[in-house]
Fold this sequence. Notes:
CATH superfamily of the largest domain: Pelota, domain A
Number of domains: 3
Number of helices: 10
Radius of gyration: 24 Å
Distance between the termini: 42 Å
Amino acid sequence: MKVLHQDTRTNEIKLRPETIDDLWHMSNLLDESDLVYASTYRRKEDKGDKLRPERTEKIRMRLGIRVKKVEFHESEDRLRLLGEIESGPQDVGQHHTLMIGVGDDITIVKTEWKQAYLERIKRAVEASEKPSIVFVAIEDTEAVIAMAREYGFKESATITRNPEGKMYESKSNEEAYLDEVVDKVVPIVNGEPLVILGPGFTKESLAHRIREKHPDLQSEIILLSTGQAGMAGVHEAMKRGLGGKAVENSRVARETRLVEQLFSEIGSDGLFAYGMQSVRTAAEAGAVKTLLVLDEKVRTDEADTMLRLVENSRGEFVIISSLHEAGRRLESLGGIAAILRYPIA
Length: 345
């Protein structure tokens, strides 16, 4: 994410999303009634015979719409903003949908920029400087390739091995299976950390095959043994810790560690609070060391007040994505929880 312009007098910030993660961040920044400016296409206004309107060509124009609904479409790599046109060369008052993609500049005007939103922008800017993580969860008959993104995990491909098949005649079936996985994963890695995991020894064979076929690959390769393959194995690895500096510094890994720490405190009846009222009591007492808030809960005025209380007492707050396993576990506690400095009544 790039911050192109900020004006505290008009409460407007101009941003440029550089990744799909940035579009997800933006979907969490926008509220109903925000005013958003962006370039878009709309049909040229027909000023001819209104009884017999003709379909005109679409032209590019800059519109400002008052947001009514925000939709993040991960599969389409687009952010859809639905609302009414409030500013532009034509059709003021009519409905329009802005389609925001990677590289599209967007100006957001709010009545007030809450601290949590400014923190999210800062987080998105910092995340753009860190590598993503590519996972291959592999066993004898199936390999799943996935990427850790800011909003969770995105499966990229699934490769299935058919031991009885005749599609590979020039090599052994295992070699062909590994080569297919290598051909799928190497273009995705592109210098980013690669975690190969799963039960058995197929992961070692894959790592050897990658190094053999691509000796110049500039990626850290980390091997992990897990009890499961597939996405279940990825989630198992995240809970245990992955190893490797770049991997452990990723946002998803940090969120997972903090939620694991929280549940560890709960399991040992230690330093924790969860639920809005209990966390608020702890925050007012200055006892919160780390506040964990689900991204879906951070928009509320009560959550914003809590964030300010925690900051004033020199605690930290972390916004947890609702789209990966750590977020779902936090949601089971009401979407807000805290790791405490000391116990409170």
